[in-house]
Amino acid sequence: MKHELPPDFEKRWRRRFEEFAGLRDDDAGIAGWSPSGLETRMRNFMRQWPGAPKGALWLDIGCGAGTYTRMLASEGLRVIGIDYSLPSLVKACKRTDDPAIDWFAADVNRLPVKNAAVDGVLCFGVLQAVADSGTALQSIARTLKPQGSLWVDILNAECVANVLEQRRLQRAGKPTHLRYEHRENVLEALRRAGFSEVTLFWLPILPSRLARWQWLVETSLARSMWRMLPWVASRLSHSILVHARLAA
Question: Whole-model pTM?
Fold first, then answer.
């Protein structure tokens, strides 16, 4: 099911992120997540994160309040936190005095970074707020060294809950406020940007009111089921975590 984006979709999101940072003071709120949603995303990323060589240079694009930026720095990496919301960056700076972190205001589609300059990129909570993933992924690919590592996430267009939300908005005559994506489209966009060795990790996230039961969909048995039954996982997973490497 296709839901047309309003012409000012990206501008609305930029204003929204600036409002989040102005009105909220917790990492989750500044990033636009619920506390349980951010905790779940972080926990699942850390479960898959293999680490990186000490001193490697990484970008955290769409860093918000710097949650993942500080995590990468704690692993001994040099990190640049990038966000187009200046109020978010101000709050991120206040949360850390780590000399391994630099902060820059920039748009994912126009990154002020030299070609083939960085070892890895995290880009979480960003593709849902841009009109086209392909442009953003091309911009990211330009900054990465050959075999550089990329972690991104998408909001899953095949998830039943997401489909129902889109239909609710259509019936109400309201524009979509998030961009949901089909995994096939992301895989093709990654290929066109020069990425290979792509791995998908399904991420079922229960609503905040059901957060105390989140552990049930994260047990080793549940994770094995998502891997063995991707059709089921695709219908239940709110988000998909994606890891890819730039071709040599």
Answer: 0.93
